[in-house]
Amino acid sequence: VKIVDFVKNLPGRPIVSAFTATATEEVKNDILCTLNLEDPKVVITGFDRKNLYYSVENIRRKDDFVMDYIDRHPTESGIIYCSTRKNVDNLFELLFQKGVAVTRYHAGLNNETRKKNQEDFIYDRTPVIIATNAFGMGIDKSNVRYVIHYNMPQSLENYYQEAGRAGRDTEPSECILFYSPQDVVMNQYMIENGRDRQDMDFETNTLVVERDRERLKKMTFYCWTKECLREYILRYFGEYGKHYCGNCSNCLHEFTDEDVTDIARALVSCVAGTGQRFGAVLIMDTVHGANTARIRSCHLEENEEYGVLSKVPVHKLRDVLNFLLLGEYLFSTNEEYPHLCLTEKGERFLKVWEEEPVIMKMPDRKSVV
Which of 8, 69, 172, 361 could be 255's S-S partner, Cβ–Cβ 3.0 to 4.6 Å? Predict the structure, then answer.
């Protein structure tokens, strides 16, 4: 608003240009509208950087993975992003004690220390840096061979910008994202309690929170999908690539097709039978036959799907439920406490499930660390 008012108050309207590193079609249109750009020429350089290898790792022992990776790439420069200062400091101490040439960067360090650590990284005195997202603006280090996200970012815009600091010399580089459900919960908390929105009015704040929830949902879907990761990113930003890029963990991973119709039917039926009022955890607990106070207080043990999938491992239930969300049989509401609802596709599935089986790619659980 201040930019628009400033331009309006000038004696004559100058040529106005707007630049952004990453923007969806919605954001591009918002920029054009907000800045009142007149018959603008829009130039998009493209989002596909073929030298970058994308990977999502659903692991528990993150520190072990990082140590092993650095041991296998001892001479390479890399950035490891963490969501909190505490994670940065803990991982820095671990690597430093192991003799890794590493430094760190976050807002809790004084200006002089941050400047020195940044320069040590840029000039390869310490080729590995552990940082929060406060690090990176204006950094153009060409030989970053890998970017590891220790925690999942809040949006694909953030992830693409941060991961994109790898391989700027066009040489092969790796972008590795660690996924854990705890990261989703932490990001949800940060969205609900955003300090940078304190000056917003109620209506604006509500719109921003809803937008951020949707972005987090798409970021989470990126971590769940078994399809090409590069194609998912390109599609998010309005471009379309091949369904097989040959340079991401999903394209190079061997999945097996499995008929999960019975599991899918039970999950969708449970959502419908509970009035579409509960979240993913309660739905999975219900079909798995959990005997908890929450189940009893909601009378979910009376649901006809209660316990029908008691012999199915919880991790498989979660994989199938994620697939149903990705495949738009179900959707999760954009609320502080989201609940699952049926889409038209989900409602139709309950009528035709015997004729139209649900086939999904199941992950190789042996690869989970």
Answer: 361
Calpha distance 319→280 (Å, rounded): 12
Q: Which residue has the tokens 């890794």?
A: 100
User: What stretches of 35-163 show up as alpha helix (H) in DSSP?
Assistant: 62-72, 85-97, 111-122, 156-163
pLDDT at 39 over 70: yes
Q: How far apart are CA 248 and CA 48, in angstroms?
A: 13
d(CA 25, CA 128): 35
Cα-Cα end-to-end distance for the chain: 49
Average pLDDT on 14-37 reads 79
Q: What is the pLDDT of residue 16?
A: 85
- Host H or E run for residue 54: strand 52-57
Higher model confidence: residue 356 or residue 34?
356
Mean pLDDT, all residues of the chain: 91
